[in-house]
UniProtKB/TrEMBL annotation:
<protein>
    <recommendedName>
        <fullName>Antitoxin</fullName>
    </recommendedName>
</protein>
Length: 95
């Protein structure tokens, strides 16, 4: 187990993350606060606890939004905006 002060964690985050990825446990110390022990979780453990990983959730969200977003041309978008905001456009046209 490796012990790291919170200031070193801020300065050398990439190195600490590499240690975690290699399977090392890291104890994080900060004056006046209890120590924390950090360990990398296996993907299978994350899936058991949460059903899916964050990357899988993001991929699913991207697929859902890609299907639900209707691509409009500029003219279609302009017409939609004019219809939606007609009362504002008419009020400004009178000035």
């Amino acid at each position: 187990m490796i012990t790291v002060r919170e200031t070193r964690l801020r300065d050398e985050l990439a190195e600490v993350l590499d240690l975690l990825r290699q399977g090392n446990a890291v104890t994080l110390t900060q004056p006046g606060k209890p120590d924390l022990v950090l360990r990398a979780a296996a993907v299978s453990a994350i899936k058991q606890e949460h059903g899916e990983t964050a990357g899988e959730k993001e991929l699913m969200r991207d697929r859902i939004t890609a299907k639900s977003v209707k691509r409009l041309t500029f003219e279609q978008t302009k017409a939609k905006t004019q219809k939606k905001h007609a009362h504002i456009i008419n009020a400004l046209a009178g000035k």
